[in-house]
Design goal:
By secondary structure, this protein is an alpha+beta fold. 72% of the residues lie in helices and 6% in strands. It folds into two domains: 161 residues, Four Helix Bundle (Hemerythrin (Met), subunit A); 111 residues, no CATH class.
Length: 312
């Protein structure tokens, strides 16, 4: 049915928005986390290599010759690891200075110890600065993702409001009106009808069918009821209206139909009955021939133009 498809489509849009927002957050977190972790690991590896060279250069000259040889091998391995783990362009000249001065510093040349320690310290500083920069970038991306999620949430909220209002206008309100009309008919109000013109197509058709059934029942009751059962003024009013050939009805000050003759009931049962009810309520429409006020501000007597069949 049409209104079922409208409900499914509306909830599908809202669920789709939530899924897109969740998927976007998960994808960003899954890509950002490992990338930052890899960068941090590479920087930490460079820092550990530089610290190793600093320790070896500071201790080896004071040790026995065999320890110097072992220190030289460890320093060479650390420097090669630094060459294979360059993450910042500024590291390259420091590594070359370290590679040139560290062997001399390990042999006890005091003049080489200062440049070796200085270049190793610079490597540590470069990688610490890179880690801080990447951490700030990660925070910026995280904040951007958070604001993007907030913006998407606001958009989803606004869309849900629009969808909710549309559902209330096209489905919820017409169903409530339909229930009220049936309840009023059950309690004896035979003239209350469904008047919503913005319902979903299938629901609007159901409302028109209910109006037609109520009009048919009222028409049958009016025809079958003996005159003796019609009370006082209502009987006189109905008799006067039924004497009219053209469709005629009495409308109260609120625009409700108080009474109508057979011709008017037949017109109200037509497919365009909703539009006719609105015209009777407002007093404006191409079919209205006259609209006369009743005494005492009780409403109006509205007559429609007679059809060709009624005129004959």
């Amino acid at each position: 049915m049409e209104f079922r498809r409208e409900i499914v489509a509306s909830f599908g849009i809202m669920i789709g928005m939530v899924l897109v927002m969740s998927l976007n957050a998960v994808l960003l977190a899954s890509r950002l986390g490992p990338a930052i972790a890899q960068i941090m690991d590479e920087n930490m590896a460079s820092i550990r290599g530089a610290v190793t060279v600093i320790e070896l250069a500071a201790r080896a000259p004071a040790g026995p010759p065999e320890e110097r040889g072992d220190a030289a091998a460890k320093a060479a391995a650390a420097i090669e690891a630094l060459r294979g783990n360059v993450t910042e362009p500024a590291e390259l000249p420091m590594i070359e200075i370290l590679a040139a001065e560290t062997p001399r510093a390990l042999r006890g040349e005091i003049a080489a110890l200062g440049p070796a320690l200085s270049s190793a310290t610079s490597l540590v500083d470069i990688n610490i600065a890179a880690m801080a920069r990447h951490g700030a970038e990660a925070q910026r991306l995280g904040a951007a993702n958070a604001w993007a999620a907030v913006f998407a949430g606001v958009i989803a909220f606004l869309i849900s409001r629009v969808i909710g209002r549309r559902l209330r206008r096209r489905i919820v309100a017409p169903i409530a009106e339909l229930r009220e009309v049936l309840d009023r008919a059950h309690h004896g109000d035979h003239l209350r009808r469904c008047e919503s013109t913005d319902a979903a197509a299938d629901l609007g058709q159901i409302m028109r069918d209910v109006n037609r059934l109520l009009d048919d029942r009222l028409l049958r009751d009016r025809v079958a009821a003996p005159p003796s059962e019609r009370a006082g003024a209502q009987a006189v009013l109905l008799a006067l209206l039924d004497a009219e050939v053209a469709p005629c009805a009495v409308i109260d000050p609120e625009g409700g139909i108080v009474a109508a003759n057979h011709a008017m009931l037949a017109r109200l049962a037509d497919p365009d009955g909703l539009a006719l009810r609105e015209a009777l309520r407002t007093g404006e429409g191409p079919d209205i021939a006259s609209r006369q006020p009743l005494a005492g501000d009780l409403g109006w007597r509205v007559t429609l133009a007679a059809s060709d069949d009624q005129a004959t």
